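for the recovery benchmark. tokens below, seq after
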């Protein structure tokens, strides 16, 4: 069913052999540009091989979704229907480590007294953190400075946690006023430089190393039509444009596949052109790393 001369599927044959839904899924599978043989892969790992760890993770997700028909007490944060709190945490414009800290706070995975109480230890506890966080979100919902308020709160909570750990594990007590100044400095620095989703400062296009080409590639995908496209631009170390291409629209099963196809097509083009020293920059960091 693959038309390797044209580098894609034989669409007429696919539509003839399969129904509309199955045809859409099949046509969204990218074919190899190198003509290699098909092989079975485990798509939950980067290298395509099965591991017990990822297998257990998938099994737990299936159990949470009810596909194993078992009743469970917990629910993964990303699977909770109607709960937008997790999106709010991961969407904060703060460092990634602080987002992860807030996720652990709301998920009840930090070593705090409430968790000790769950293990039948006789300790005094305060209010549940997740309940307090949800109450805060309800109070500031719709405010013009909602993002700034949340940044102040999470930076402050992060610093309190750090100070507490210094006292417990290093017997190092920090002056409260000095801790407040550290929080203020961190907030001012973050707002001046900006913060990306990956925790780094926002920057413009950066030149590659001497005698190195830099490729910026990107893919797009429409979930309603299932069609996607990609394009890329090659510049030299001075910043001059060397090459640029845009592919025609074709079926993809997801946006990440369109991103991956853009990287693959760029690498193939650079190899054919004899470009050996190339730096790739893409939104799909899971492939670039």
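predicted aa per position
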């Amino acid at each position: 069913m693959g038309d390797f001369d044209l580098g894609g599927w034989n669409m007429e044959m696919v539509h003839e052999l399969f129904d509309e839904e199955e045809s859409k899924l099949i046509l969204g599978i990218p074919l190899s540009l190198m003509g290699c043989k098909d092989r079975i892969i485990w798509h939950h790992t980067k290298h395509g091989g099965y591991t017990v760890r990822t297998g257990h993770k998938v099994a737990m997700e299936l159990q949470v979704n009810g596909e194993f028909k078992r009743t469970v007490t917990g629910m993964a944060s990303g699977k909770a229907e109607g709960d937008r709190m997790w999106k709010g945490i991961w969407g904060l414009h703060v460092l990634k480590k602080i987002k992860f800290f807030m996720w652990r706070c709301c998920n009840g995975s930090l070593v705090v007294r409430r968790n000790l109480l769950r293990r039948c230890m006789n300790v005094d506890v305060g209010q549940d953190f997740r309940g307090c966080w949800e109450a805060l979100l309800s109070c500031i919902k719709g405010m013009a400075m909602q993002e700034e308020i949340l940044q102040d709160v999470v930076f402050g909570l992060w610093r309190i946690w750090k100070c507490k750990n210094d006292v417990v594990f290093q017997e190092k007590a920090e002056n409260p006023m000095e801790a407040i100044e550290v929080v203020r400095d961190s907030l001012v620095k973050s707002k001046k430089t900006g913060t990306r989703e990956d925790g780094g400062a926002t920057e413009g296009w950066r030149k590659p190393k001497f005698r190195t080409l830099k490729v910026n590639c990107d893919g797009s995908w429409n979930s309603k039509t299932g069609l996607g496209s990609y394009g890329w631009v090659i510049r030299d170390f001075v910043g001059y444009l060397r090459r640029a291409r845009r592919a025609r629209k074709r079926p993809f099963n997801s946006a990440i596949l369109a991103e991956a196809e853009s990287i693959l097509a760029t690498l193939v083009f650079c190899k054919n052109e004899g470009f050996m020293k190339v730096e790739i920059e893409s939104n799909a960091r899971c492939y670039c790393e």
